[in-house]
Design brief:
10% strand; 125 residues; 4 helices; 4 strands
Length: 125
């Protein structure tokens, strides 16, 4: 999410899902596990600017940088513990358990997260 507010609903969750705002990621799990299927519906609450990262292009980038094996190994070691689309943390918690979101959820249910590419071990140029 570059800019705007998105609402998410899922038949797999009975909980209210706080809105996603600037800096948050949606569908982040498919980058680590390309075979996953969509399990939520997203709608815009405001005008939005969004960025799309096609999973095939992401996997091709990892391969071209020669870090695809390293990425798979990191996922095998840490993904079980979570990948957060709100704060970008990898290996600690899932999006719906984000400590920052839970702390701010009483403040209108929104959170301004940021994905940190360093947490993925991808070189920043």
């Amino acid at each position: 999410v570059i800019e705007g507010v998105l609402a998410m609903s899922s038949s797999m969750s009975q909980k209210d899902i706080p809105d996603f705002t600037s800096g948050a990621w949606l569908g982040e799990q498919v980058l680590a596990c390309p075979g996953l299927c969509r399990n939520a519906t997203v709608a815009t609450r405001t005008a939005c600017r969004l960025m799309s990262v096609p999973v095939d292009k992401f996997q091709a980038l990892l391969s071209s940088l020669g870090i695809d094996q390293q990425f798979r190994e990191e996922c095998e070691r840490h993904l079980f513990f979570g990948l957060c689309g709100r704060c970008g943390t990898f290996g600690d918690h899932w999006t719906d358990e984000c400590p920052a979101m839970l702390a701010k959820s009483s403040l209108k249910g929104t959170f301004h997260g940021r994905m940190n590419s360093a947490t993925w071990g991808v070189p920043v140029t």
